[in-house]
Structure formats: structure tokens, C-alpha cells
Amino acid sequence: MHLAYPAVLSALLFCTGLYGVLARRNAILVLMSVELMLNAVNLNLVAFDVWLSRAAEETLHSGQALTLFTIAIAAAEIGIGLAIVLAVHRNRGTSDIDKLRDTAEGHEPDGPDTDTPATGTAAEKAEATA
Question: Shortest CA distance to 44 belongs to which of 5, 93, 95, 79?
Fold first, then answer.
């Protein structure tokens, strides 16, 4: 098999994962996109390892060993990441990244701006709302 096929597939997987990280707002979908990017890297590692071992006629397979190590680290990462997302969802009631960022900064995104001073008397405010 030619090296271009897995390299193109790996690039497509990585770009799909990158789009998911940049476009999604749900934390679980972002974690899934990161895993897709890691799998694209693993595919690239294995493809280049096979290609280089055929060219050099060696059977070291260090790329495949590195891929197994990466899979183990990714499994631990997704386990911890999902645990954190579930804990945050239980406490805050949402897993939307933008809403979590706004609540962490201490202000509501849809609320009025509190930096501007109030102008007018109470009678003017009551008249404006009526």
C-alpha cells in the first residue's frame, strides 16, 4: 500500500477533529474531537513506521510501540476528562463551554452591563417601563 493513502486519511481525520474542537460548544463533543485528532496522529505513526521498516528492512516497530503508549495515555485522558465534565454538569447544570467560561469569570453573558452607571431618577425609570 502506498504511503499517501493513510496520510490523506490521517489528515482528513485530523481536520475533522480540529473543526470539532473549534466549532463545538458541548464539552463532551470537544473531548470526542480531541480523541479523533489523537487517532489521526496514531494512524500516521503506524503508517510511517510500516513504511520506514519496509525501506530499512528492520523490525523495530518503534512507531507502533509509541502508538500503543499514546492509546493508553488517551484512555486515561478521556476518563479523567469525562469525570470532570460530569462533575461540572452536575454542579452547574450545563456542559456548554461558553456558559461555563462566563460563569467562571463571575458575570452572566445575557445580563445587563453593570459597569455603566445608572442615570435618571426613579420616576423617570418607572415612566420608561410603563
Answer: 5
Rg, C-alpha atoms of the chain: 25
Q: How far apart are CA 122 and CA 112, in angstroms?
A: 18
pLDDT in tens, 61-108: 888 999 999 999 999 999 999 999 999 999 988 888 888 877 767 765
CATH of the domain at 43: 1.10.287.3510
CB 95 within 8 A of CB 88: yes
Please indicate, yes or no, if residue 56 is contained in any of the structural domains: yes
Task: Report the predicted TM-score, pTM, of the whole model to 2 decimal places.
Answer: 0.73
Residue ranges making up the domain that contains 47? 4-109
